[in-house]
Amino acid sequence: MFIYSIKKSTLKFVGIICLAAVLMISLLVLVPKNSVSAEPAAAESSLKFDKIRSNTDRIKFLKQFGWEVEKTPEKETVVRIPSEFDSIMSSYNDLQKKIGLDLEKCAGKEAVRYTYKVTNYPGYDGEVFANIVIYKNSVIAGDVCSADVDGFIHDLTYPGGIPEETTVPEETTSDTSADSAAAEQTPTNETTAAPAE
């Protein structure tokens, strides 16, 4: 028969280790993983920000906010999200947070910005563009801006709410000619993301 004695301090130490292990396991199970995702945290559940793979998907994405755009993008540009945000990028990120997006999750990553000409901006006759920034088939940022010197920029929300006549087209399985043309375009490179042009 073996007799083994344990000091009180050793029991306390083992108890603390066990408690810490249980706490860590609980945190790993209960807290969502922090990954680079474009899934909006607080956006309306009906808005779709992921699975944006083609030109048709991008147009459909903008349409869910109420925007009518031309069939092909005006510009397609590779951008790098800065690792550290200056005051301009912080302001631009604040726009994104209004619709549940956060560019800080993609800091230092390369993405593609697509610029579309808007054809239904209410009460404004100048040129208006919608920009969406896509990383790994998910929208991570977007804005609507005018091309005028004294113009404007705002988040993707349609002024006054989404028009009633706006409907999101049904998904199609075949590629359109606009998709094929967009796939053939090679995006230009930029070193940092610009809020809008």
Overview of this structure, please?
The chain has 197 residues and is an alpha+beta fold. The protein has a domain at 55-189. It has helices at 8-30, 55-63, 87-97, 177-184, and strands spanning 75-80, 110-117, 128-135, 138-146, 153-154, 188-189. The chain has a 6-stranded mixed beta sheet with strand order 5-4-3-2-1-6.
Counting helices, strands and paired strands, the structural category is: alpha+beta
Radius of gyration (CA) equals 24 Å
- Our estimate of the beta-strand percent is 15-25%
Mean pLDDT: 78
Number of strands: 6
Helical amount: 25-40%
Biggest sheet, spatial arrangement of strands: 5-4-3-2-1-6
Note the main sheet: 6 strands, mixed
Shape: elongated
Comma- or semicolon-separated keywords:
197 residues; 4 helices
SSE map:
Blueprint: H1 8-30, H2 55-63, E1 75-80, H3 87-97, E2 110-117, E3 128-135, E4 138-146, E5 153-154, H4 177-184, E6 188-189
Parallel strand pairs: 1-6
Antiparallel strand pairs: 1-2, 2-3, 3-4, 4-5
Summarize the structure.
By secondary structure, the protein is of the alpha+beta class. Helices cover 26% and strands 18% of the residues. A hairpin with a 2-residue loop joins strand 3 (128-135) and strand 4.
